[in-house]
Amino acid sequence: MDPVRNPYAPGAGQRPPELAGRDKQLDAFDVVLERVAAGRPERSVMLTGLRGVGKTVLLNQLRSSARSRGWGTGKLEARPDQGLRRPLASALHMAVRSIAAEHRNPEMVDDFLGILKAFALRATADKGMRDRWQPGIDVPAVTGRADSGDIEIDLVELLTEAGQLVAGTGVGLGLFIDELQDLGADDISAICGACHELSQESAPVIVVGAGLPHLPAVLSASKSYSERLFGYHRIDRLPRESADRALIAPAEREQVKFTDEALAALYRKADGYPYFVQAYGKATWDAAADSPITAEDVELAAPAAEEELAVGFFGSRYERATPAERDYMRAMADLAGDEGPVSTAAVAAELGRKPASVSPARDGLIKKGLIYSAERGTIGFTVPHFGRYLRGVQ
């Protein structure tokens, strides 16, 4: 069939043509938006799950929902080698700019932007460097708020000021943070502390984060009350009905159909993981001669889909690991199957090593985001079917 008309989109964070199976999370977030805008107490939101389940896509969709209601929104992606101040300041600047033109008090907006500028400038300790670097905010910095140098104090003060800026306007501000688990311990603590203060004040500001399955443990290690501070949504593979809809709806818009056997074969291949659904759907479309798409088309296309996944989804991650880290992951794959989790002691025993001697490899893999600590003494792959891939790597 015509590859130009191929509707499927296997891309990192790229919205699929049919966002299937996430209605529960979207409906729950609509309630959060309504309650916050009405001045009612509500919790910020955390999305957790393996890579490839569509966390970033859902995060972007939640942001779109907020924007459609007139909210100011900003987004950032956390990185382990970067502090929180600069990217958060840029995201919040974006959020405020989007509502500034309609704000009833322009002077109040300028005052807040001055505080935001002072917050951002504290990211640079050296005064000379601060004088050379400016955060792109065209008002003078306002001293005395959110500029102490302590990220937790400053973030609480900054978001409290942001809440006062939009209070009574009927809208709110939303900060959307992807890969939240990659923030440093101090920045995680600051996020928790600020959200705690916002919830107590019923301020119209929320944080929506997305991260790997161990994100709740990361937050809990920072602040014990974080278990009650956020509304957690675990994002997992799609059930059969939703996976079928993700394939059928885009195809029908192109006047193309699938046989029932083709849909069953695609579900077995993709295992319900949204990224895999798109990858196999795209390859199958290109391999099929005409409609309806058959199970034979799926089998014909499978090697192409698997090759693409091996290079772009699995291989790029595997190449980042050192030889010792690759040995560690292969031992995990032999013990844990596709994802895990598996005992760290069992991995060491599989390698014929003492647990302490393989800790550097484990810690390196965690920092690279290839494995995560599911709970104390256990680990799992962050990527679905990674164990299957590793068992095929020579």
UniProtKB/TrEMBL annotation:
Disordered: annotated span: 1-21
Pfam families, alphabetized: AAA_16
Gene3D superfamilies linked to this entry: P-loop containing nucleotide triphosphate hydrolases, Winged helix-like DNA-binding domain superfamily/Winged helix DNA-binding domain
InterPro entries: AAA_16 (IPR041664), Cyt_c-like_dom (IPR009056), P-loop_NTPase (IPR027417), WH-like_DNA-bd_sf (IPR036388), WH_DNA-bd_sf (IPR036390)
Organism: Nocardia stercoris
Domain of life: Bacteria
Organism lineage: Bacteria, Bacillati, Actinomycetota, Actinomycetes, Mycobacteriales
Domain Cytochrome c: 167-333
Annotated keywords: ATP-binding, Heme, Iron, Metal-binding, Nucleotide-binding
GO terms of molecular function: ATP binding; electron transfer activity; heme binding; metal ion binding
Name of the protein this chain belongs to: ATP-binding protein
Keyword Nucleotide-binding attributed: yes
PANTHER family: ATPASE DOMAIN-CONTAINING PROTEIN, DNA-BINDING PROTEIN-RELATED
PROSITE patterns assigned: CYTC
